[in-house]
Design brief:
The protein is mainly α. It has 2 domains: 84 residues, no CATH class; 50 residues, no CATH class. It has 6 helices and no strands. It is extended.
């Protein structure tokens, strides 16, 4: 459902889209409740994600105290600033971010395949991959 709403927001740019779409196509009272539930979901999940990311970055025992602060202050400030832009900008950021995630997934999958085939297939090995790209 949310994936379809994101595509609808990109095609039909409307501020406060979740409320507007549900109010227009279902019922205004349900739209109000969905808006409150959507806000409550993000108000509880987002801080937990930031705390988890800050705890995860502490796994590497970095000497500087600033890496967890990135997730405590800079990431929420970035998302707050992002919400100040029109829906059109959010749609483009969502599109470019999705394309970058897809490219990252493909590149990591190819590298993992090359690493897993190392030593079993001489045509596909990590050394040949690195040598071909000048990284050896």
């Amino acid at each position: 459902m949310s994936h379809a709403l994101i595509h609808a927001v990109q095609v039909f740019r409307v501020p406060n889209a979740i409320y507007e779409y549900i109010a227009a196509w279902v019922d205004e009272d349900i739209a109000w409740v969905m808006g409150i539930m959507y806000w409550y979901c993000w108000a509880t999940v987002f801080p937990e994600e930031m705390l988890s990311a800050a705890a995860l970055i502490q796994y590497w025992n970095l000497a500087a105290p600033w890496p967890p602060l990135i997730f405590y202050f800079l990431v929420p400030a970035f998302f707050l600033a992002l919400n100040l832009f029109p829906v059109y900008v959010y749609g483009w950021i969502e599109t470019v971010g999705g394309a970058l995630k897809t490219i990252l997934l493909l590149v990591v999958s190819c590298i993992m395949f090359a690493v897993s085939q190392q030593g079993t297939c001489p045509a596909i090995s990590l050394q040949l991959f690195l040598a071909a790209h000048g990284m050896s």
